[in-house]
Amino acid sequence: MGDERQHVRVAVIGTGFGGLGMGVRLRREGITDFVILERAGSVGGTWRDNSYPGCACDVPSHLYSFSFAPNAEWPRTFSGQPHIRAYLERVTDTFGLRPHIRFDSEVLAARWDGERARWEIRTAREELTADVLVSATGPLSDPRIPEIPGLDGFPGKVFHSARWDHDYDLAGKRVAMVGTGASAIQIVPAVQPKVARLTVIQRTPPWVLPRMDRGINAVERWLHDTVPATAKARRGLLWLIREFQVGAFVKRPQLMKATEQLAKAHLRKAVKDPVLRAKLIPDYTIGCKRILLSNDYYPALAAPNAEVVAGALREVRGSTVVTADGTEREVDAIVFGTGFHVTDMPIGERITGADGRTLAEHWKDGMAALRGSTVDGFPNLLMVIGPNTGLANSSMILMIESTLAYIADYLRTLDRTGAAALVAKPAAVRAWNAGLQRRLARTVWNTGGCVSWYLDVNGRNTTVWPGTTAEFRRATARVDLAEYDLVPRPAGPAAATAAAEVTA
């Protein structure tokens, strides 16, 4: 009796920018035998999950969109979450992706079958097999809430910023905001006017610069729609400015001092209280953590009903939160803005390679991938937004599109060579990552004196790309076969069975 599971050429995990972009690229390559597996009931990835008050992007809209799907209707220079999510829904429909998507299909396990040279995948709804597996889950998909003694006994409401409880009204409540990262600085000014008391628990203050946001008027939108070259030029200028900024982050962190002075002036203008201002000045080089953009974060903290408590959340006693310095505050709700599982992505525990080890086990000493995309021991597994492809100053969509081009060439290489799979050589992965770590050693992310989510538990930077987006595009323009071993197509009964299943 044959295998009744569906077999596809490519299975993609996730429907954020990475997964949808992969679907578009596959169709443009003439590949229609693919599925996109999504654990939720709609597309959008992080822009579906993060719907907290004030949620918006800190990259200009015309740069934070696909080059192949320009959007002349962005309402603001920095658009909010509803508009970005709507854009992704529109991309899904415009490029005919919806028939390929399997919603409510969380990937529970994926295992490489060496005998048949394919991936066996088990989702919450079905089992299927695929020649190629593309993980586009992204690093900002699984929220991280620290283990806090007593949190389980808190009688009030607790939720993470990426799992916002819209049924719970914060109006008139005493609220503790834990964290001061990119999400928190948007949440704080959005909820501060309505809560009775807002306690911001700050482990480390962020560097904050003004947000140069404004509405895009009807004339601009008409021009971009009528003369697409104007939108392309706008995008190109935004890209070029950020390319020039890379040197200060990567090669000359001392140049960040001028930016630091701008941030301090921004703080002085908004916060007159010297005691509060002192709490909000970081003790690390600007850029070591992600630089945040906001015009209303500091004014919200200076409001009469807000306070900043310096120090991490140490424990919860009943309805009282206790910080590292012993400060106690009674609250009705605790909101965690404590980031995500970035260097320990949960999907790694669900993918098993050729040697029977999971990706998490393979990466026990730190994430590493060849050109951010492939891992030794995991044939035909490719990643979108893999290790060391993150950016600190520009649009991740640029990195995603470069990776999609690399994956497209990978698939063409499989066809050209007749191989069942490619698997990255361990030596190639080591050489690529040794080069990255040498370059990262002098960057502001490694030398700036902070502890950030860019670094893993071993202090190794496994997230950020130490170069320009143009350089990454060149590095991923095509597959270098010298970096891979070819996995031949299976012979004998396995081949016959596989052929029968494909033609059935």
Automatic annotation (TrEMBL):
GO molecular function, one term: monooxygenase activity
Keyword Flavoprotein: yes
Spans traversing the lipid bilayer: none
Keywords attached to this entry: FAD, Flavoprotein, Monooxygenase, NADP, Oxidoreductase
InterPro entries, A to Z: FAD-bind_Monooxygenase_sf (IPR051209), FAD/NAD-bd_sf (IPR036188)
Gene3D superfamilies: FAD/NAD(P)-binding domain (3.50.50.60)
Co-factor requirement: FAD
Family: Belongs to the FAD-binding monooxygenase family.
Protein name: Monooxygenase
Source species of the chain: Streptantibioticus cattleyicolor (strain ATCC 35852 / DSM 46488 / JCM 4925 / NBRC 14057 / NRRL 8057)
